Amino acid sequence: DTASETKPFQAEVAELLNLMVHSVYSETDIFLRELISNASDALDKLRYESIAKPELMEKGGEPSIRIIPKKAPDTLTIVDNGIGMDRQELIDNLGTIAKSGTKSFISKLAESKDSAGLIGQFGVGFYAAFMVADKITVTSRRAGSDDVWTWTSAGGAGFEIGRASDEDAARVERGTEIVLHLKPDASKYLEDWQIERIVTEYSDNIQFPILLVPEEGEPRQINSASALWQRSKSELSEDDYKQAYKQIAGAFDEPAMTLHYRAEGRQSYAVLLFAPSTKPFDLFEPERKGKIKLYVRRVFITSEAEMLPPYLRFLRGVIDSEDLPLNLSREMLQKNPQLAQIRSAVTGKVIGELESLADKKPEDFAKIWDAFGPVLKEGLYEDFERREKLLSLARFTTTAGEKRSLKQYVEAMKENQTEIYYLVGDSLERLKSNPKLESAAARGIEVLLLTDPVDAFWTSAQLDFGGKPLKSLSQGDVNFDLIPKLDQDQDKDGSDDTKADEATVIAVIKDALGDRVSDVKASQRLTSSASCLVAGGMGPDRELEKMLARANK
Ligand code: ADP
Ligand code: MG
């Protein structure tokens, strides 16, 4: 069975490779970061699996990542002695993309100038190597296995897979060797200083030693290989944090918030979390999954532990526990009470940090709110316990201005005003011309103008803020009786004459509309428009109804 087989790439991969191979992307450097990050993941997996099976570590040496440049022919080789891949894993992992959102990613990439940012976010890391290589050979041995496989591809439609030659098999004792046959214009990646520059910039915090093996001279370690979150705050500069953020999150922006602390007591753990300053493209994927990495005593366990609630899924970073068992099973990830306690404590800390940021650095908080406000609002109906805090964090566009907090709203409330008014709709322009605002405007009452899709949901929960109920102007009765109009002369309703007229008009309208409406009422909502449709007091919000109708189309 030494003959090798040719297999086609999944259609999305072929499309992606086509973009990569013919790339005009300027940020080709990131291919190395992606391959190093895969090597580091593979070493993490080995460390984790060897807890139950120490024999996996027997052959293959101390964990490391080696980078080997060679000229004529120009090849750059990246070697790790991590978990490795068997035949099926090579086929699955390097021939398909299983992630959700692949299609939207590829179409964005095809039109994007910010390819590096997108590639980093999506983590199609391996394929990024085709930006610099016209042929790639991967030789891999799964830890503990006697079989070694070679995968080869020149991009295009497919790849070849077969048994490794005896010579290759002898060299790869454990893990994966990736040989990049560099394109002519990528030969700069053979320069030691270029390799060092990229590693320092993107991969300095990788926890395993990265060794540069020059054509001449001795191998040397070119990263600092520390678990940055374990170090004390006082040793770390803002630049250290920025760098760590970029590396941990695969991001290209700057963090808008950094939270680094160590919890001691009933449980000990280190936390290093970042809020990005820009929106990732997959923020609204239906899975709503977070990416926080869970470590136990510096061993990476999983990024699937959902350490924060879905409405904080935009945060990136690491939680490293001292007390949890290393062999956490999938089941335990959900049921473990220690984990639940860490989740809740860290969530509280994050909210606290957002509060103090809103207080002390409003511009930084505004960045977070602009990018992730609609996500944070999901917490308003999901996190009952922290609803009040989240409501105070929320910023709104209102008839009085932008980025208004409810605290500001309440301070600006009119005499005798006891409720917080809002309107939900799909655009600001349409809301602003909504006749339902007229009567509020005549009284100088501020109204929240809610245009995020999520607004229809959290407002349906009948919330109040500091004892003031939130009330939709498009639902049920709105009573402005006790709040005087700004211009008193206009205030003629309520006189006996108008009351009598009202009754006649209403009777005529009811007659004309019949069963199509449940009631017709004189209202104080309007001043210059003649009529508007509202939902009954107990019924669903009228704007919510419209939105749901659109969503169900
Ligand atoms: P991601 O790292 O986000 O999963 P990549 O395209 O970078 O996406 O890698 C795809 C998959 O290929 C990885 O998830 C991993 O299973 C496998 N893989 C890539 N490089 C290695 C490696 N050096 N050792 C073991 N597995 C690897
Ligand atoms: Mg990767």
Automatic annotation (TrEMBL):
Domain Histidine kinase/HSP90-like ATPase: 27-186
Entry-linked InterPro entries: HATPase_C_sf, HATPase_dom, HSP90_C, Hsp90_fam, Hsp90_N, Ribosomal_Su5_D2-typ_SF
Keywords from the named record: ATP-binding, Chaperone, Cytoplasm, Nucleotide-binding, Stress response
Region annotation B: where it falls in the sequence: 331-546
Keyword Nucleotide-binding part of the UniProt annotation: yes
Principal localisation: cytoplasm
A Pfam family assignment: HATPase_c_3
Subcellular location: Cytoplasm
Region entry A, spans: 1-330
Keyword set includes ATP-binding: yes
Highest taxon in the source lineage: Bacteria
Function description: Molecular chaperone. Has ATPase activity.
Family affiliation: Belongs to the heat shock protein 90 family.
The protein's assembly and partners: Homodimer.
Name under which the protein is recorded: Chaperone protein HtpG
Native source organism of the sequence: Rhodopseudomonas thermotolerans
Gene that specifies this protein: htpG
